[in-house]
Write a structure and sequence with these properties.
Blueprint (H helix, E strand, L loop, with lengths): L2 H13 L3 H17 L3 H28 L20 H8 L2 H4 L3 E5 L6 H14 L4 E5 H13 L3 H10 L2 E7 L6 H14 L4 E6 L6 H5 L2 H13 L1 E5 L5 H8 L16
Bound molecules: adenosine-5'-diphosphate and magnesium ion (MG).
Length: about 260
């Protein structure tokens, strides 16, 4: 290849953002020439590599954007420790049909039983399948919505939350909502209703949501939308954190953990 063509080829690869091909081209062409590979084989390999790096860097970007507080996967979850979770239900959720159908998932149960782990694990599965995911705690969500409302940008903020294919709202019920917060929460739920999927986790039963939201009417309207198309998983059983402590011999852990105290 003459110098001019060589320079132009690399310049065009850069112009088209084919950065992986640009990087591996020289070595690959040399190897291909010595091995007598066909042009189709060479092009196939180069484009395969480009697509592979793009997919994995897009996945990394989506992982970063999701803002998970910790990385948890369903592969790391010990289902034998939590027999109240039906593996068939998890297998169904793993297909991500619920994301395609814009359905909700509710994970309920006391602290430490794996609600956040399962929620994040499903979020990671969704990212692997190419969906945009965002994780937030209920208190951080309400904080951001309140701030946006004060700046007269509530609608814009709600639209931002509405655009994620899967939103995870963790830790509903650890902090009670004020009336205006309950309204904001209802608006967020309404925006996503039948349009995009949301996973909710809570240490409180649905009958306690009136109390959490400080208004039984808004709580009923919110739950009506959440539960219309929803999978509810009530995790009963022991805290995994407690079990880990027991295993290292710490027996006298306060009973608060089992009754729904702080996370
Ligand atoms: P919750 O959100 O219900 O309070 P977490 O999901 O935060 O509980 O779980 C507490 C800790 O225990 C986390 O580190 C989580 O990864 C781990 N954990 C909980 N249940 C399991 C399980 N069945 N298998 C493996 N790890 C678990
Ligand atoms: Mg949690």
């Amino acid at each position: 290849m003459d110098n001019l063509a060589y320079e132009r080829l690399h310049a065009n690869l850069k112009a088209l953002n084919l950065n992986t091909i640009d990087t591996i081209l020289d070595n690959h062409l040399e190897a291909a020439a010595s091995e007598g590979k066909s042009i189709t084989d060479v092009l196939d390999h180069l484009f395969e590599e480009e697509v592979k790096t793009r997919n994995s860097s897009a996945m990394e970007t989506r992982m970063k954007l999701a803002g998970f507080p910790v990385k948890k996967t369903l592969e790391d979850f010990d289902f034998s420790f939590q027999p109240s979770i039906d593996p068939a239900v998890i297998n169904e959720l793993r297909t991500l049909r619920f994301v395609h159908n814009a359905d909700s998932v509710c994970l309920l149960g006391p602290p430490g039983v794996g609600k956040s782990h399962v929620a994040i694990g499903l979020g990671v599965e969704a990212i692997r399948k190419g969906f945009s995911v965002y994780y937030t705690t209920a208190s951080s969500l309400l904080d951001k919505l309140k701030k946006a409302e004060q700046r007269d940008q509530l609608d814009k903020k709600l639209r931002t939350y509405a655009k994620y294919k899967l939103l995870i709202v963790d830790e509903i019920g650890y902090l009670p909502m004020r009336r205006e917060e309950a309204h904001l929460f209802f608006q967020m739920v309404s925006r996503r209703y039948e349009k995009a999927s949301t996973i909710f986790t809570s240490n409180k039963t649905f009958s306690e949501w009136g109390e959490i939201m400080g208004d039984t009417v808004i709580a009923a309207a919110t739950l009506d939308r959440i539960l219309h198309h929803s999978t509810v998983i009530s995790i009963k059983g022991e805290s995994y954190r407690l079990r880990a402590r027991r295993r290292v011999g710490i027996q006298s852990f306060p009973v608060k953990e089992a009754t729904g105290g702080a996370p």
